[in-house]
Amino acid sequence: MADRTRATKFVFDSYAFSLEEKRASFTYRMEFENREPMIFIDELFFPELPETMRASESLIDAVLRGVHIALGVSYYKLSCPVDIEVSHALSEKQAVFWNTVYRKGLGEFFFRNNIDPRGRINFPFDRSLSPGSFAVDVEDRALLGIGGGKDSIVAGELLKKMNVSTSAFIFETGEPVPLVERVVEEMALPTVKVRHVLDRKVFDGYEGSYNGHVPFSAMVAWTGYLAAALCGYRYVVVGNERSSNVGNVDYFGETVNHQWSKSVEFETMFQEYAREFLSPDIVYFSLLRPFYEIRVAEMFSQYDRYFSLFSSCNRSFRVRKHRPETLWCGECAKCAFVFLLLSAFVKKEALVGIFGKNMLDDEALLSLFGDVLGFGSMKPFDCVGTFEEARAALFLSRERFGTSRVSETFLSSVDHPEQLVRESMRFFRAETVPARFLFAGAKNALILGYGNEGKSTERYLKQHLPHLPIGIADKSADDSYLDRQKEYDVAIKTPGMPKRLVTIPYTTATNIFFSQTKNLTIGVTGTKGKSTTASLINAILRTAGRKSLLLGNIGQPLLSAFDTPLDPATIIVAELSSYQLDDVEYSPHIAVLLNLFSDHMNYHGSVDAYHEAKRNVVRFQNDRDFAVYNETNPKLSEWVREGKGRPIPIHKSGRGCETYETKLLGAHNAENIRAAVSVARLLGISEEAIREGIRIFNPLPHRLERVGEFRGITFYDDAISTTPESTEAALEAIPNVSTILLGGEDRGYDFRQLEQTIRACGVRNIVLFPESGKRILSSFEGLTVLETDNMEAAIRFAYKQTPPGSICLLSTASPSYSLWKNFEQKGDEFQRLVKKFGEDIS
Q1: What average pLDDT is seen over the chain?
Q2: In principle, which of 59, 170, 273, 662 could form an S-S bond with 193, CB 3.0–4.6 Å?
Q3: What is residue 123's three-state secondary structure?
Q4: What is the C-alpha to C-alpha distance for residues 576 and 740, in angstroms, rounded to an integer?
Q5: Which of 321-330, 503-512, 585-594 has the lowest mean pLDDT?
Q6: Backbone dihedral angles phi then psi of residue 69, each to the nearest 5 degrees
Q7: Average pLDDT over residues 663-678
Q8: Could you tell me whether strands 7-18 and 23-32 are parallel, antiparallel, or unpaired per DSSP bridges?
Q9: Distance between CA atoms of residues 649 and 593, nearest Å
Q10: CA-to-CA dists, residue 653 to 138, 676, 734, 741, angstroms
Q11: pLDDT recorded at residue 282
């Protein structure tokens, strides 16, 4: 035992990769006080590698560094010295990742070997280091980890059902496992295999060396990611369930979880690490994360052709030990748990045929089942699920197995079994699963809101997931439509519905779009000017001969891009509202931030929540993305400074556009032009095309739109202005306004500055619509005011009070919903009545 304490340092020494030899090697060194260092060499062989790498050498090198540390845990654990040295520098954030992976991944090892892990693992780091991520040319296909058990089989069948191009990833440690080969053959998948050769000295050990469990799934994750980078796969998919999140025992203030490297905690950490330090183009995730293992067992029960092939008994996967000829030993916790789960869904004769006996009637296994069911001293250190789902399965097993020794012994102690079944069989929210895969394994889906976007979502789902039963819930059809959620696994929420009203796991069309598209995306947001700027960018692109689609909050829904095959060269220009950004999980390649006021308080609940929604447009960017922003706004500048996208300030990058000919009026539109020009220049559009695109661009309807001159009065429709700030901008853009129409839905805006602007601009005639109209003016002194809820009365007032040669402006500084369906309806009614009474007013 004394030698153990004299291991003074563990060194992650070097690594090498040869495409010609299809081999990666990793060298480690254990240093001691009183003996020569021990050198360990770990190797990976890639028999299916293409002749040329899909990824850059820089990305491959970054991944190899991670694989070097991930595989090194098998050698570090021999002595667990406190002093760790890494030959390649780590940033502080990278070091924190590896500290956590080693500490929690070795939690069971520390527990079993009675080692205090506190303060033991501290990877060195360089504070000045800020590594970035890399682009990689990947195909839209998945590399699925296959281990021979029911989970990876179910994941593979779900991917097939979704028509996802999939290859099996086999990580062989030691000799090949025949059962894995047979499962892959039955799945009829092409194979990417990695053979892992451990240094034999790790098995021999030395006096005082430790042995025990390592985070094997973390090794699979890193090696799978390396294979995906080398071969060009967009996704690395595994079959880890929600059950793996639950630990076994507390030790020195931390939960020890045998399955920690299968847990959502590791998955989330690895995704973040990969996005920031490897490549956002390759995504690692578990397809089965929304389910407890009992629901996966229910799905597996449909695929009886695998019954004679699969196994997850640990004895079938031994390294350098005898593997039994039978697939299931029938004696371990894993066998007991799998038998118990399947007993709820598989006929008795078939299940007994798989395991060779009825394990539920084996008297010798009662204590083992007690541990699995939570009636023992501790959850077994094995890949078994929760006590709750085990008890639910025991309750359900009565239908096929009747009364058994296990049910006789334990079922009476199970409280509220029906409730356990309902909870264990639920579909749960899984934030690590890309939105396009969220429907895998769902029994049905509900479209919440059936407007244009809801209909587009329905078309997308029917085209890409024809097997998925779809329900529709919309307020126009049923006032209690929200109650229908309990009938469904998952929802697709329309942007106009606050997320607080959704009671089941959900995604959005915006998330589905961004998770699916590989096209260049430009996302435009801001309190005001989004539509004009997005439309202007699209117009400039079209003028320059570029293919582009204008989608999002203006015009066509995002998912309509997939109604027909989408040309990879097409640039997507998307107007993104705060509603769409509120729960988005992706950011566009080019994010455009125009301005920021207070708005939509009834939806978001607070100014901070509204701002946080807007911030999402840059929150998920990487260092290959761009943030085009109005640098005069301190908050926007702060967001961009703290984000990862490359900053493009519009006043600097859009310099010189003030001389361009344009039909757009006002200082606020000048800002919109600067933003559009900044994007165009970023994309390499010629100055001639930019200038011409701006010259021919017509203002959008209801945005300082000149309705015409009638009876000597010029009328402008600015119905889009639904905040005090935007109405102030309109007054600054158009001089000589004598009459203005104000008011609408009251969202608690502060109108004091607007009133000062109105008086400073010499506006004398005011129409005030409810509800906010009564709050806009503190005094009517010196003004002629009409309070009305009728647009016709407002237009008659305008014709009567507005002097010829001056202007009447519709710019309400409040949303339209108190009297009109939307701002378009309000503007259309204004224009119709202006023209009608301009011909004949009495």
Answers
A1: 94
A2: 170
A3: coil
A4: 29
A5: 321-330
A6: -75, -40
A7: 94
A8: antiparallel
A9: 10
A10: 32, 10, 27, 37
A11: 96
